[in-house]
Amino acid sequence: MAQRQRMGNQPMIVLSEESQRTSGKDAQTMNITAGKAVAESVRTTLGPKGMDKMLVDSGGSVVVTNDGVTILKEMDIDHPAANMIVEVSETQEEEVGDGTTSAVVVAGELLDQAEELLDQDIHATTLAQGYRQAAEKAKEILDEQAIEVSTDDRATLTQIASTAMTGKGAESAKDRLAELVVDAVLAVADEDDIDTENVSVEKVVGGSIDESELVEGVIVDKERVDENMPYMVEDANVALFDGDIEVKETEIDAEVNVTDPEQLQQFLDQEEQQLREMVDHLVDVGADVVFVGDGIDDMAQHYLAQEGILAVRRAKSGDLKRLARATGGRVVSNLDDLDSDDLGFAGSVAQKDIGGDERIFVEDVEEAKSVTLILRGGTEHVVDEVERAVEDSLGVVRTTLLDGQVLPGGGAPEAELALQLRDFADSVGGREQLAVEAFADALEVIPRTLAENAGLDPIDSLVDLRARHDGGELGAGLDAYTGDVIDMEAEGVVEPLRVKTQAIESATEAAVMILRIDDVIAAGDLRSSGDDDDGEDMPAGGAGGMGGMGGMGGMGGAM
After folding, report:
1. Which amino acids are annotated catalytic?
2. Which residue ranges does the record annotate as region Disordered (predicted)?
């Protein structure tokens, strides 16, 4: 679709012949449709009664999940506006770890509400202004409603961990897992920050989810390098060396000419002596166990076994860091620099069988600043989904400890926001008022979807919820199991304040960005570049004809 402007009698070509251009209302409609399609694809997974999705990639590998961000990442979406909505879920995952589906569903509903107002000739800029005002007000309202939680209130932390796992694959053992998650986060918490990277998760296929456990220490997915080494070392001094125990190579290419066998023997003896000295150094500093980042020479393995030292090679740098935090040791990069002060301590270092795999357990450490969660389940798909639920749970417990503020769940905050934003809309002048009201309506998609997914009547549930919030019950939310409207805070269904504020913030930003686009210009369709018809048969514009951008046609295929 070439764009031409006439200069005198000569047409000037601005865009190439292959370019696709969609302008004005068509561009807005196409982008809104794409955004809504993404939200619709995850909407049925929301809440405790949400359904799962099975995603099969081109290689045939299968993922069964309820986790919004996982679904959207696996779906292979190639429409640019749709990808803006996917980014909302990724931001939510990085910032707070949970609420990815809620954020995407709200973004989709904001676009849906905007479409109706655009049809009434309300300008997109006016809409964007109104949405931003509503989002700011929503955050203020949520801040006022937030419930303070002290970091040593273990019961509330456990409820938060449990809420984050509700409706996911870990549902059947969520109480047990919630306890483990809270223990894990509290163990690795430092005064100024909590890095959940220090909670490593090991998946074991076999057994039931109930058999999951927390190891206060580190599990390294390796075996000892020599069969003659001890299986277990108690009260072990642990050396951490990010290098190799091998013969030092010369830095320049050197050629050694050996003229008689004695010289060769001398050469080999010298290499052995080098390795012997390295092992003797470990013995001298008092190491009982050594974790090495690179390789260990066969001869060195033999010497280490003779000395009764348990050695592990090719340990990942992440494992070495976790071992250092757990044992109090220091990772050294030069073996000559290692001295007894660099050694860590563990009450027990042992090679154990877990789910048919041999792994090294480093336990009984004085203050476990690095811990390992062992997640078990009957099949690989179950364990993978439990891991996703636990990752979300770790994120929300961390966020709660950092912020110390929570909100009731079950659609209660959204119902309260909708009520208060409708009042706020009256004080907003001009056409923006309509956008604020639309924002309030959009937020009610959360309780409505919770009701739909639980097989309840969404209208009846919404009417009940509105009535209770009108009566001043801030914590009234929908119990998806019974269909009743109950006090969520009293029931212990709570989630961090930041889950809600971040979801509203990123959903609003994405919706506003999409609404402000009035022209989409795409380069020629790469997929038809091999054809000889110069793209003449390609549909121009519209939701199905975005050419090189994958269009909704491309997206429909991906979904």
Report:
1. 67, 100-101, 392
2. 1-27, 526-549
